[in-house]
Amino acid sequence: MKAYSSLARFYDGFTQDAPYEAFVDFYEEIFRLNKPVKTILDLACGTGTLTHLLAARGYETLGVDSSPDMLSIAAQKLSGDCLCPPVFICQDMENLDLYGTVDAAVCSLDGINYVQPERLCAVFNRVHLFLEPGGVFIFDIHTPYHLRRMDGAACVDETDDAFCVWCAEFDKSENACHYGFDIFEKSGDLWNRSREEHTQYAHRPKTLIKLLKVEGFVNICLFGASKKPPSPTERRIFITAWKKGL
To answer: What is the pTM of this model?
Structure first.
């Protein structure tokens, strides 16, 4: 089953501890380093929580994701209270095709890890194409160190009406971590079970920097915990890359 289909309607309940506000705070710190940002692309936006937070802070936001099920949840969050509600589009990252350019692009919560290595150039090329000159691309990844350490890991996430058991296995030959999700949803006195599988690729930061440069990005920086340069044992790192100004 395709990733983020059955899991979509439970995703927000299972990720209530995701630090979306902290992500947006960090993005705004980076935005202030250059020209003012008005329009933002949220790539692999999922259920749109971060997209809506950006819109609530006054940005014109465009959320793109390949999962129609996740975007359906995102659309349900639209509210008349927002002066400029987000627009959501169902597209693959490597086939990104916007109606105009944006001042900034973000991809949060390791969305880039889902991109197959041979498709990274296409993704970076499309993001660069639709960025305004002087615009910034900010994304984070699970590091290879973290994904390798996930091998054999198992965990349970639960809400009042559902629980999810997931297990991880790292495949050295593919340099990728495979996750199996078994989701159990309460239905009266019974439980319905569904399953889906995800794959995250262990992209080396040096490789990402090289590919970003090939596609025209400049001033590429890496940030680890506490916004410091990443350590060898970092679990998540942020990468910022800029498009040359005019």
So the answer is: 0.95
